[in-house]
Amino acid sequence: MARAREIGIEIGVxxxxxxxxxxxxxxxxxxxxxxxxxxxxxxxxxxxxxxxVTALVVAEDAYARPAAAGGAVLNGxxxxxxxxxxxxxxxxxxxxxxxxxxxxGRVYDSACRIELExxxxxxxxxxxxxVAECDDSFLNDCRRMQVEHDDVVxxxxxxxxxxxxxxxxxxxxxxxGTGMSCLGFxxxxxxxxxxxxxxxxxxxxxxxxxxxxxRLTVDGLHLGRLLPEDPQPxxxxxxxxxxxxxxxxxxxxxxxxxxxxxxxxxxRTGSTAHNGxxxxxxxxxxxxxxxxxxxxxxxxxxxxxxxxxxxAVVDASEEAVLNSMLTAPTTTGRDGNTSEGLDPTTVARxxxxxxxxx
Length: 358
Fold this sequence. Notes:
Mean pLDDT: 95
CATH class: Alpha Beta
Strand order of the largest sheet: 5-3-13-12-11-10
Number of helices: 8
């Protein structure tokens, strides 16, 4: 397994950050709990589990000093708790958790418990954690409640510990991405970052679970047409949860504009946002924080100044999709269903052949 750049795929012209991931944004951390279990069904066991939890910590003190945030929806067949509040207030005050559709309630409960334990003020002022989901039921037995409180705590702890990390975080079939499929192959967690000419860092995290193999596009090349058909075809619906983080001082309305550009990156890889797919995106500025939201006008990046940030989001989103697939191995789950890993060697060979005009 390899990331896109390790096999010569370089999306766009902007440079990446040191880890080419969300860890390049100061103060951000990401952690996973992967649940991979093969047991008999109840009462003897808990069945086949290919699921998990991913926690994205935007700032350690987000509840005390919320970050500017905004969201966008490309197609709304999905769920993200806290999304309405972020849109109304323009603020994010909790980590962002990703998981599978049927586990969302459990993760939400645990996220509340984590915040209550971290800040006593939550008991009086309450909190609405941000928890988003994709459907992993092709590989995961979603009839069983596979996620426990300790799994969410472990993902959060790992995210806190990862801040400032110098190496890329795990991608592919990890955490919430364990049971996801993308463009007819194994999908999951993917991330990438860019540095703008002004020195701002922009990073994208995706949970990919969408699309058809025949539409797979890599850096503008229609590779899906050259690959064997999916041996276990499935409906093209799915979902993609996307988060864009930047250290640029951006107001909440423009965080939503950044988030919307994730959809352009997905389209480059072959997404058409099918009727049953949920493409839900959040944008967050880690430097525009309450109570410091009253920036002087000259300090805020806005208007045409956002163009480089927009470019960074689109390119990082496209690359994050590819990373989510190229790092994910073939996975077999519920009822023997199999999601084939996208072989990096095959991708590199096809790109070379197309470049030679073969």
